[in-house]
Amino acid sequence: MTNFISVQLKKASEVDLAKPLCKFIQQSYPGGDAQAEHCRAAEELSKLRKSALGRPLDKHESALETLLRYYDQLCAIEPKFPFSENQVCVTFTWKDAFDKGSLFGGSAKLALASLGYEKTCVLFNCGALASQIAAEQNLDNDEGLKAAAKHYQFASGAFQHIKDTVLSALNREPTVDISPDTVGTLSLIMLAQAQEVFFLKATRDKMKDAIIAKLANQAADYYGDAYKQCQYKDTLPKEVFPVLAAKHCIMQANAEYHQSILAKQQKKFGEEIGRLQHAADLVKTVSSRYDEYINVKDLVDKINRALTAAKKDNDFIYHDRVPDLKDLESIGKASLVKSTPVAVPLSQKFTDLFEKMVPLQVQQSVSVYNQRKADLVNRLIAQMREATNLANGVLASLNLPAAIEDVSGDTVPQSILNKSKSVIEQGGIQTVDQLIKDLPELLQRNKEILDESLRLLDEEENTDNDLRTKFKERWQRTPSNELYKPLRAEGTNYQSILNKAVHADGLVKERYQAHRDTIALLCKPESELNAAIPSANPAKTLQGSEVVNVLRTLLANLDEVKKEREQLENDLKSVNFDMTSKFLTALAQDGAINEEAISVTELDRIYGSYTQKVQESLKKQEELLKNIQNAHQEFSKMKQSNNESNLREEVLKNLAVANDNFVELVANLKEGTKFYNELTEILLKFQNKCSDIVFARKTERDELLKDLQQSIAREPSAPAIPLPTYQTTSAGGAKPAASSTPTPAPRTMVGAKPQPPARPPPPVISALSSSSSASAPSGTAAAPAAPAPAPTPPPGASAPAASTAPSQAQGPPYPTYPGYAGYCQMPMPMGYNPYMYGQYNLPYAPSPVFQPPGQAPYPAPQQPGYPFPQQPYYSQQ
To answer: Where would one find coiled-coil regions in this protein (predicted)?
Structure first.
């Protein structure tokens, strides 16, 4: 009687998890021990999947433990890897557990690039394997009963969890086996079987009949609910429905039986008989309808014996009235089972392979924090550099410090010599020329990488659109134009960056061309440089004056501010603070991360003092420049002015400006080269991302095309074939006109047994026929009298209805073709022979040359109006 239902496992296609996970790790984490450790963990995860899904599993606890560990690991990596179609794209393919498929079409399956889908299918297999393990338990001992009840309740919880989460996990219609209706029914079936196990344990422990009756009645209720949920749906295997119906009746019969014992103890003998009669009717229904699924002979015998004894006692002793079934009190219910909730980790032996990897939410928060930090540092550095450039520009416009250093008027000022030496040490104009020459090559390389990445997306998107147009609603996958929107936006951003870079390169080149000659002059030896500067002696009388000393002091203070600023810039760049622990703590405490609030607070704490120093430096420079300008005005008033001195001062100013431009140009060009090289790495990652998703989409496309071809193969491909002419004889018995095309041979209709026609009256055999038959040699058949040939009807006229032939030829009880030893051809009149076996009644002479292809060596009886000759018979010994 204890015939339990177990669920089949889903089958998964092989997937290499290590490769895409390692690629993401290498892109997201710096090289070193941590990266290598994460890659090893990815390989271990791939091996764990093969152990859990890549081989048949035994119905044992160890196999279930492997499945549970894999499910726990999937839950652990979900917040750490961005599994999606356009990031870490891994396509998981699973077959329907209940779909047996067809000869040409194969079984139904679904492929999705979704970790939630993988988790759902793995949890389904956990519940299915738990049901199989429970069904294998020995229910004759307490250990087996406890294990079965535990596994059934776990399976019920697993299926219930899938019912609650599958639609949100997949974001599309799932296969039938994991649809909410199906897994909801499976959950209820597992719960009913767990309740039945408790009923069996209560019976085995000989508990009170009132308790046993309530347990059985509750189990019957569960089975009844499960049957109602699936009786009108073709989602579960067909053998499940009769088992559920039988179990409902059996558990209800057990409830009535044990309640009848309680009625007997309470001296309610009529109620005892009524309940036993109801129980007998229930098991009788099971034995008559579902005997091939569940054997209830022992239960039938037990109930019948109790019913016979109760009737006998009541008839002879108690004479208690037997109440109607509707008048009996309802039996109570007692549920001892509940679905085990799915609480990760499910495995007691689980250890997270990626324990040291921070969750994706923390990674994203750290990334945003780093961006905020970079923006703040860059803004502070930009403010300081802008102030330095402003100071250099003001000094160059005032020809300082060259103006106060130019004592003799015919030598190069020391500041100009220092600037010239610095330019020559940095490579001079050749360095700038080489840096400018390299820029177009770097730019072209980045453009080619970006164009190739976008070309991959365009090609795949065009192919997807063509197939969507071809298959219309059958092409059920995310459109490429929607899926690629983030990548398109990223590509547009890179294109915009390149356009801005091209514009910036143009500005740098224009600036270089404007100052190239002066920079080239700075690169010359001191003698040539001195010859290029006009001679004059404008400040000879001012040497040692107070205004010159003030200017020198102010310039020295300004140089000190510049040096402090350089040190402050280095300090800003060297500050480093790991925010991972902060974000992890916030995630553990609140379950979410308020990145903006945490980041702003920490940045203010870390960089507040540096921001204050930058502002003080800017303010100090502003005061120094103001004082320098005031002192220079006094210096200019006192200085002797003439054309030669003005020309010399202008040249010195240009040389100072050329030095500043050289320094800035070299810095900009080196920064541009670094920018292009870094952009190349970013664009290569972008290209890899595009190629990965395109490859995944191609794989998904091939799988979908294969499924569509199989689906089309399962569909009927031809319209209904019209009946051949020999099956369309009119009711009046008239034969259709002969056709010039061959008529196909009649086919035997399997399953529809033809009924023989009414037996004809006995034929009248003439004396001539009898004598001819008697004079024939022994062992040969007498030749029948040849009937007169039927007149051939004129063209267009219908043949006379000489006899009525059945629409489907009926086979004789014995062979009647020539060559068979028992052949006996009797010349029966045409009107009395509905079988019409012979060929003498054909409306025209058969052709002796045509032999229909594929004719069986043992021919069927000749059909009326069949235009081709019988094939010779070859005796098979």
So the answer is: 551-578, 611-641
320 burial (CB, 10 Å; 0-12 / 13-18 / 19+) is middle
Winning range, highest mean pLDDT, from 218-232, 775-789, 833-847: 218-232
Tell the burial category of 499 from Cβ atoms under 10 Å away from its Cβ (0-12, 13-18, 19+): exposed
Of 525-539, 577-591, 645-659, least confident by mean pLDDT is: 525-539
**Can you tell me the distance from the alpha carbon of 330 to that of 328, in angstroms, rounded to the nearest whole number?**
6
Quick one: average pLDDT of 683-688? Answer: 89
**Looking at the DSSP assignment, which residues form a beta bridge with residue 83?**
88
Q: How many Å separate Cα 546 from the centre of its chain?
A: 83
Residue with tokens 């030669």: 644
Q: Tens digit of pLDDT for each residue in 276-289?
A: 999 999 999 999 99
CA-to-CA separations, 63 to 73, 210, 638, 725, in angstroms, rounded: 16, 40, 99, 63
Rounded average pLDDT over 392-413: 73
**Is 364-709 the same fold as 7-205+341-357?**
no
- Here the tokens at position 232 are 């009108």
Which one, of 608, 567, 602, 566, lies nearest residue 582 by Cα?
602
Q: Which residues contact 509 (CB under 8 A, 6 or more apart)?
A: 436
pLDDT of residue 457: 92
Residue 117 neighbours by CB under 8 Å, 6+ apart: 92, 94, 110, 169, 170
Q: Specify the 3-state DSSP secondary structure of 12.
A: strand
State which H helix or E strand residue 815 sits in: none
- Cβ(534)–Cβ(648) under 8 Å? yes
pLDDT reading at 727 higher than 70: no
DSSP state of 318: I
Q: Which residue type does 527 have? A: S
Q: Which helix (H) or strand (E) holds 36?
A: helix 33-53
Per-residue pLDDT for 468 more than 70?
Answer: yes
The residues facing 110 across adjacent strands are 94
Domain boundaries, the chain: 7-205+341-357, 207-319, 364-709
Q: For 852, which DSSP code?
A: -
- Determine contact, residues 526/417, Cβ cutoff 8 Å: yes
Stretch among 146-150, 680-684, 718-722 having the lowest mean pLDDT: 718-722
Other CB atoms within 10 A of residue 391 CB: 20
What number of CA atoms fall less than 13 Å from residue 590's CA on the CB side? 11
Band (pLDDT 50/70/90 cuts) for residue 405 is low
Average pLDDT of 704-732? 61
Q: Are 358 and 580 in contact (CB under 8 A)?
A: yes
Which of the two residues, 645 and 558, has the higher pLDDT score?
A: 558
Q: Which two tokens mark 616?
A: 């003080």
pTM beyond 0.90, yes or no:
no
CB-based contacts of 398, cutoff 8 Å, min separation 6: 628, 629, 632
Element (H, E) at 94: strand 92-95
Q: How far is CA 723 from CA 189, 237, 727, 854, in A?
A: 49, 36, 6, 20
- Amino acid symbol at 648: R
> Taking the domain 7-205+341-357, which CATH number applies?
1.25.40.280
Given a cut of 60, whether residue 173 has pLDDT beyond it is yes
Question: Do 656 and 419 touch, CB atoms closer than 8 A?
Answer: yes
- DSSP assignment string, 513-577: HHHHHHHHHHTS-HHHHHHHSPP--TTGGGTT-HHHHHHHHHHHHHHHHHHHHHHHHHHHHH---
Record the tokens describing residue 266, joined without a space: 């309470």
Q: At residue 250, does pLDDT exceed 90?
A: yes
Contacts 24+ apart (CB under 8 A), 720-727: 725/865, 726/863, 726/864, 726/865, 726/866, 727/807, 727/808
Dihedral angle sign, alpha carbons of residues 841, 846, 852, 857: positive
According to the model, what pLDDT value does residue 806 have? 45
CATH fold label, 364-709 = Butyryl-CoA Dehydrogenase, subunit A; domain 3 (1.20.140)
Q: What is the DSSP letter of 326?
A: G
